[in-house]
Every structure is written in structure tokens, then in C-alpha cells.
Fold this protein.
Amino acid sequence: MQHIEIKEEFPFSVEQLFAFMERHENLQGIFSPIKITTIREGENERYGVGSVRRLQIAFEPPFEESITAYTKNELIEYKITKGSPLKDHHGIMKFRQTESGSQLDYTIFFDSSIPFIAQIVRFFLERSIRSGLKKLQKANR
């Protein structure tokens, strides 16, 4: 089982951070070069529980992630629900207000039935997320 854990602080409110991170299409900047589109809206909130996003990397087959838990300005959880060689994938984004702005605690767990794929994905995914979050910090200063 692979595990990514990222804690990042931002110089803006938790409401602003959450509003950006909940929008599926905005995540393209965090997960570059992945293209992300919303294919189903949530039950009570557009990007809340039940919403589904499609992710595609270049010419690879797309896969889908579904939002499984959502508390405005506090929590977003999701899992891959279709089309990926990864298994047992679970992403958790926790948001909190700080004295100087906000903090995102982002944890992802996953595995793969194909040898070494999970380790390779972990390396590139973590690097992409860290880089994307740094860009988000600078873009909103």
C-alpha cells in the first residue's frame, strides 16, 4: 500500500481554499498534466457526495473518481471508481483555518495489482501535487 501525505499552508482563508479545491476542473492545475472534467454533479452540492470527475493523462485511458464524503470548508474524500490499474485508492483533503490563513492536510492511499506501478505512480503523483500546491500559494498572494 502506497501513502502520500502533504500538509501545506496558504495565505488565504479556508473558504477560499476550499472553494478552489472542491471544483474538479481547478484540480488540473494541481495534478498537471492530467485533464479533469466533471461528469456528474453531487447529490446536495455540485461537487459534493456523489459527484464524479473524469481524469485523463495524455493518451492513456481515462479513469473516474467519486466524492464519498464532503463537509463544506472542512473535508473532501474521494475514491477511484472506474478505469484505473490502481486499487484501494482513497483520497482525503482536510481543511482548517490558521492564524495566517488556511491549511490543507492531503492524504492519499492506494495500491496496484500490477507490480511496481503503485510506486511509480506515487513518485510522480506526489511530485505533481506538491508542485501544483506551491503554484497555488504563489498565484493567490
The mean pLDDT is 93. The two ends are 36 Å apart (CA to CA). The chain has two helices and seven strands. The first strand starts at residue 2 and ends at 10.
